[in-house]
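Translate sequence into structure tokens.
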Amino acid sequence: MFKKIPRTNLLFFGGALLVFLVIQIAISTHLLNDFWSTIIRIGGVMAIVSLGLNLIYGFNGQFSLGQWGFYAIGAYTAADITYRWTNLNEATGLSILLIGVLLVGGAIVYLRSLLGKIRGLDALSAFTMYFLATLVLGVLAVYLGKLVGPAVAGLLLALPSGISLQIVFVLAVIIGGILAAEVSFLFGLPVLTLGSDYFGIATLGFTIIVKVLLDNSDTMLGFAEMKGARGMIGIPKITTWFWVFLALFIVVLVMRNLLHSSYGRAIVSVREDEIAGKAMGVDVAEYKILAFVIGSFFAGLAGGLYAHINGFLHPSSFNFIRSFDPMIIIVLGGLGSMTGTLLASFTWALLLEGVLRLVLPQGFETWRFVVYPLLLILIMLVRPSGLLGTYELPFLRQVLPPLKAFSKSNSNSANPESGHPVPLQEATK
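Result follows.
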């Protein structure tokens, strides 16, 4: 027998479908031109990045400026896979990275269960073991990827070109997210032992390191197609509004269900009071790394989508100044508010990249980077908790049982002879 679907669920899913259809129809009928279509897609991508940072900082309490670095990892990883497929007709990059992330992911899970049995193992020793395993499996993945690459390419070429390109694109975006998550796990093991402020400085350093590596990716890393500081071109423009909406919708559902689970409550308890959490048996280090890895996965996923919007990537788009964008968004929307993050992300894109770019006189477009912070300061003075504070849509916040159901479940508790405690309101009558 089917249970009745809650009204809040119907409103949320119906509203999401309505938003998707309205924007999709506007794009298809050219009511929205390419400029505004791109702005909306960038807003959706920024929402995914910012939701990941909100999980790390807003819900887990870890001040991080490394989200942009993981965003860049996902962008360049996905772009390199699709570039090689569309321009070189080879699936070697796809094969190597797919095998690599699967092997390294399996090794991390296995070593985590194994090292968890060793008492007193410090973070640096654990990091060394994970890092060595990653290097060995990375070399193995390169060998296996080159071996099976031609076979994978043959299978994809047997499909219609449009379908094979979409398959490669989806796999590339997912691989970009997983790779960012695995890098964040290795980076977070030693760094998450630092205090919140020092952790923020370390993550900012990570973003700078990633940017420098991208500047020299064609020489230092050997990826000639990335062209280093000149910028990577020839990336297929595959990211449509459908893919952005689908990814954002899945991220919202995953994050909502995570926060309402026992894992989510443990993640939030770390933000509230680490000492109290430890006293209640919460493994603080475990839940710090969990929030950090999931948030970084979201960033890598968003990076893969972003790379295929304009078909061009440049390391300057991932410098440390831009790393403050998702931080500003979650503060503007409200720390610990998914609804606020969604609203602020699209507001950020429409205002900064859309309205201000068009309204400001020609030659003064860069002044939007002055107007935008001034508006942010004004909002912080008027409403320090952000646009929505801690408000959540009914579907996203924890839904409590109806009052009637609560009264029915406690119908016997009013009788002292039943052995159940008497509710406070009954005891005070």
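Note: Residues 192 and 285 are 8 Å apart (CA to CA).
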